[in-house]
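Pasting as-is:
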Amino acid sequence: MSGYTSRDWALDLHDHGFQVVVVPLKKKYPSVLWKQYQTERISRKQVEDWFAQGEHNLAIITGSISGVVVVDGDSSQACEYIEENCTTTPMIVQTSKGRHYYYRHPGAKIPNACRVFDIPPIDLRGDGGLVIGPGSMHPTGKLYHMAAGCDIANAADLPIYEEAWFPEAVKAPITEFVRPILHFSGPTEKDAYTQAQRYVASVPGAAEGTRDNAAYILACRLVRGFNLTDSEALDLLQTWNLTSTPPLDPAEVAQKVVHARAYGTGEFGSMLAKNRAVTGLLCYGWPS
């Protein structure tokens, strides 16, 4: 597909059913908030508008919205393992160091998993995840492109992803999200997401060596302290991640949110406001 622009790639992928969002050139994270697009279809007109001016990178939101799970082999050894142990797929994208293997989503929720193996390095991109798509440029200047003999395919034409391929993948316990009843004395302060957004804007990015711990702490504060849903917390955590040097991989950031809900110990709603009892109920409210 020599001569294809990023707009051509984005529209072709969209027309094949993939959920495509715009990413700055040589970057790996969308330039738009994409939480809503994990469940809400993007129109072709929106894709055209995003890619109307100049070259961009693009990302495909994985999971049920696009109907795909992507197995990410981050080295030649990882790619060899995938090709020996997983079903052959007609849609493979060459990355800077390895390949993305596209499979049909099985229907049941498939969470992201960072490093299902460390050696060889393999990640999974499922529900709530994304991958950089073909036609994009890596920070090194290398282009993401279709592997030899491969092309864009409809998700229905891909072999189905099988969880048995990676039984070593560690999944945090699934915990149900329940937002408690809250009472507020300040009507403009009712939105927990807005409060969390303000807080995240004040948190500086972290440097290499401290990013993992800083990201997990912030994930706990968002999921538990501000009592956000996982998708709300991920949206804000990914925004903060862009200020770190260098940013963590999006799949690692998603894992922090999962682990914060499963393993964190903070009290839900504790960062929203001062605790106080109202009509016998423990509530969170702002002082008058």
